[in-house]
Every structure is written in C-alpha cells, then in structure tokens.
Amino acid sequence: MTKAAGFIYTPNFLDYHFSEDHPFNQQRVLLTKELLEAQSTLMAEDLVTPRIATDEEIAIFHDTAYIEAVKRASNGNSKKERAQEYGLGTEDTPIFPNMHQASCQLVGGTLTAVEKILNGEYKKMANIGGGLHHGFQRKASGFCIYNDCAIAIKYLRKKADLKVLYVDTDAHHGDGVQSAFYDDPNVCTLSIHETGRYLFPGTGNVSERGIKSGHGYSFNLPIDAFTEDDSFLELYETALRKIAAFFKPDIIMTQNGADSHCLDPLTHLCGTMRIFEKIPLLAAEIADTYCDGKWLAVGGGGYDMWRVVPRAWGQVWNVMKTGTYCKGALPEKWISKWQNESPVLLPKNWEDGADIQPNIPRRPEITEKNKLLLEDMLKYTAII
Amino acid sequence: MLVEELMNRNMITLPPNATIREALQLLEKYKIRHITIVDEEMQVLGIVSDRDVRDASPSIFLDASDFSILNKEISTIMSSPVITIHPMDFVEEIAYIFYDKEIACLPVVSQNRLVGVVTEKDMLYKLIQLTGTHEQSSLIEVKVPDQPGQLPRVASVFGNHNVNIVSVLLYPYKDPEYKVLVFRVKTLNPMPIINDLREAGYALLWPNNIMEPKK
C-alpha cells in the first residue's frame, strides 16, 4: 500500500560541514527533525534512511573531471589553483575532508526520495538535507558541491517519462537547476527570488526563458529587495497556479530555501512565517490536482538556523503529513533542549508575532514594482 | 580597452553602384542597421543606415509600379564623408562619438582600408560586461568621500576575505563631495564584508544600508 509521506533522514547529513563559522550549517536538519518529533507530527515510522549516491549517478549531471576534482579535494590532494577552477576552495565552498562522500550522501537522500515515489511506496517525500541548487555541471558554487536537485530530476527522467515541475522559493535564484534543464521542455522551472541586482548569483531575470526546445519552460520572478508577505504571496500563488495549469506536471519538486524571511542575514527579503505556511500548502494542492499527489520537497538556503529554518522546514513536513500547517506554541521540550545552544532567543510559536517585520519605507512602490513584474511574466503562460 | 578588441570583423558592405533594393535586402537578411559603402580596395566611401534606405523607399501605401526608385544607386543616398575610427582608438572615445554625433555605427579604418565596424549595440554589450552583471555575484555599493586612497582602503576589505571581485565601477554621487564605489563580488555570503565595511565606518547604499535584522 502506498504511504502518504516519508521523511528522509540520516545523521550523516551533518557531515556536509564547511567550517564552524560557515553560514551553511546542516544542523538545521537535526533541529527540524527534533522539532517535528517533539510536535509529534514526525513518527519513527515516517523516517526513511537514505542510501549514498554512486559516482555514476553524480555523473548523470556533473562532468567526470569535476567529480575527480571534488574527490582530490576530499582527500586533501588538490592544488589550490586547479581546485579554484572548479569553484572549490573558495570562501563560499571551502574544501573539507571527505566532502565528496558528504555530498554524495545529500544526493543519495534526494535519489532515495525519487525512488520511493517512483516505485509507488510513497506519494510525497521530503529530503530537507538536499536542495543544493547552485551546483553547476563542472563547478561548485554558492555553498553547493553536487546539485542533488538536478541529479534527481535527470535520474527521474531516465527512469520514468514524467514531466517535472521544479519550483524554487529560495531567496537566491536557482541558477544551477535552471541551466541544467534550460533546453528541456519536459522539465519546467519556476524560481521566485530576490532580484539579482544586489543579491547572488545575479541571474534569474524574467527574460530568462529557456533555449531551443526548452524555450518557454523557464520562469523567473526576481522580486524587489524588502518584499514582504502580501506581495510575495500574491506573485507566487498567481504564478504557480498559472504555470501549473500551463505545464500540467506529472510530479512537482519544490526547493524550500528558507532565506526569504526578514530575520535571514544573507538576503534583503522580508517575509514572515506566513509565506512558509502557504508555500507547502500550494505545493500539496498542485501535487493533488495534477500529479496524483506526487511531490518531492527538498531544503536549500536558510541562514537563521535557530529561529527560522526549523519552523519553515517543519511546516513543509507538517503539510505533507497532515495536509495542514501547525499553529500555536512550539513544543516546550524542543525549546528547552536547544535554547542553551542557541545564541538567540528561540521563538515561542509556529507563527511570527506582528512585531517581527520591520517598517518598510518604500513598501507601496515595492508592491507596485512586483506587480508589474508578475504581469510581465504572466504573458508567457497564456496562448494569445 | 582598444576598439580592435570589440569591433566586428564580419563587415557587410556594398559597392557604390549597388541598388537601394540590394541594401534593403542586406539589412533584412543580416538584421543590421548600417551598411558601409566601399570601393574595390575596401576604402570607405560612405555609410547607409536603415533609416536612409527607408526614407528613400516609396510609402507602403503606393502601388508596386512606383518601386522603380529602389533601382537607384546606393551612392545617391549614402552619407559621405564618414566618421571613421582606428583599431587602436579607445572604447571610451567611440562612446563619446556616438553621444556627440548622435550616430550608432562607426567603420574602423586602418591604412585606408575598412577592417571592422563597431555599433552602439557592440558597445552596450561591452558595458554589460563592465558592470559584471553577467557573472555570478553579489553587489555592494559603498559611498566614500571623493579623496585619494579610498578605493584601496575599501578594496583591502574584500581582499581580506579572499573574495574575488568580478567588477568595480566608480560613479559620481548626488553630493559632489562623495563618490560611489560599486563592487560585484563572487560570493553568496557578503555579510562578513558588509560587517567589516560597516565597522570601518563606510556608508553603504540600498539595500545594505539597513542594519540586520532589517530593522
């Protein structure tokens, strides 16, 4: 019998660790898992232990030369200049021991999730340890070594002729995944992110539409710095529904970066938990409407790992498992366990208080500008 | 940067006795807006823009019998003499010529022969590259007093973080006592740099002028 939802977890996910002060910290996965267990929405029987991806599987997206470079770095045998050609050993993606194995474990998580959906064991799978959307064919970039999203979609396409809708709500443009399927009409990508005018990686303009037979299957919503909930949700909800209706996917994959929150230190977006409640609800709705329930969710960015990420990713699972998000108080057990380690005061509730959002001086103009952007993008979703 | 680095070497040319019709066909075929008119030795005699050709063409409301005008020689409508440039001229200079003369195409001439063309579009393409927006990067704008030594001081902050700078621009601020330094840096995590710049007392522009947590 098909189970409704599975949660990929292994403590090995925490081996993907650049350094103590690096903002990308996979302890987020553990914090989320324990929050959900304390909330009793995640049970032992929901957990699925992932396998490790093989080199051959990594190579369905990445160049062999790049994989070899990662392995050399992993073993401490790489020369600085050579490694930097592949984006390794930079401030963003420093070299760490066994980085190849740790990266293969994250990819293995997303591949396990794909397999469980394809063989009918599960309808919906979450691998919040994955979502490394900046990885390129032969280059590490933006904290990402192997691009589990791109590998998983390539793998899925190889095993089954399903049309994949990839939806990326990370505050940074999902450039690695977009480029991987830029010429593929069977993989439609939608990324909503802070405009690249200020923020890394700079791409993701509304004019990026795909090439060759993939033209028309890449969508981008580069929203303005300091966009808040109402404007974010208006754009996202309208765009996602229109694009899903246009593309009619067989499976939806969501990248759930949690860095669009106003507490996130790396971006200029200004969302609150409201957007992280609505994003999974919409994903579930699209999955149930078009994909016979098939939905694969991965994690991604998110750099306020104490106050934002566990709640945001927690809601992805809550919606997957129960059909709705959690409200009210966070479990006391979780707060008391982690408060000592957290340098900031942990939140008390699943929701944010009204005082969390800063005063946004140019809010009406930001909303107006985003609205124009949406209209601009929507013209590509209808046949004239 | 020298003109020879960005000029287009695949030149579309016509002899002076070619017809206006031929010019029209070339403009459409290659989706270009200018044709350089040259003699057998590739010496530049004139230039014709799509507007020159259109001005000379009969109105679309006339019937086809009047289209004989397209058989006239192109030399009758070309602009001459032509402003030309040399491969070793500077890109900045052609930008000034485009602005000053209100034109959009410059034939490049060396030893009296046409060797390339530069259009406004070629120049804009270079400009996009100068701004660094075509490469993965984060943007940081720093307002500094218009005084010697500011750029190296600010740039050393980036150097301390071992972060590659994709592009640097320096432009005037509305208050003439200040300049704005625009850096595009290849990192997803500009926060350590931003914090160091703040600590060093530099004023950052939108959106990094708002302190964390964005309040």
The name of the CATH architecture of the largest domain in chain B is: Roll
Strand order, biggest sheet of chain A? Answer: 2-1-3-8-7-4-5-6
CATH topology of chain A: Arginase, Chain A
Overall residue-averaged pLDDT value of chain B: 91
Q: What's the number of structural domains of chain A?
A: 1
Q: How far apart, in Å, are the first and last alpha carbons of chain A?
A: 44 Å
* Sheet of most strands of chain B: 4 strands, antiparallel
SSE succession of chain B: HEHEEHHEEHEHEEHE
Number of strand elements of chain A: 8
Number-wise, the strands of chain B total 9
CATH architecture of chain A: 3-Layer(aba) Sandwich
In what range is the share of β-strand residues of chain B? Answer: 15-25%
State the helicity of chain A in percent bands. Answer: 25-40%
- Quaternary state of the chains: heterodimer
Number of helices of chain B: 7
CATH-derived topology of the largest domain in chain B:
CBS-domain
Query: Which shape of chain B, going by the Cα principal axes?
Result: elongated
Give an account of the 3D structure.
- Chain A has a single domain, classed as Arginase, Chain A, CATH 3.40.800.20.
- In chain A, about 40% of the residues lie in helices and about 10% in strands.
- Chain A contains twelve helices and eight strands.
- Chain A has an eight-stranded parallel β-sheet with strand order 2-1-3-8-7-4-5-6, with helices on both faces.
- The longest helix of chain A is centred in the first third of the chain and has 20 residues, at about 100-120.
- The mean pLDDT of chain A is about 95.
- Chain B is of the alpha+beta class.
- Chain B has two domains: about 5-125, CBS-domain (Roll), CATH 3.10.580.10; about 135-205, Alpha-Beta Plaits, CATH 3.30.70.260.
- Chain B has helices at about 5, 20-30, 50-55, 90-100, 120-130, 150-160, 190-200; strands at about 15, 35-40, 45-50, 105-110, 115-120, 140-145, 165-170, 180-185, 205.
- In chain B, the strands form three sheets. In chain B, strands 7-8-6-9 form a four-stranded antiparallel β-sheet, with helices on one face.
- The mean pLDDT of chain B is about 90.
- Chains A and B meet through loops of A and loops of B.
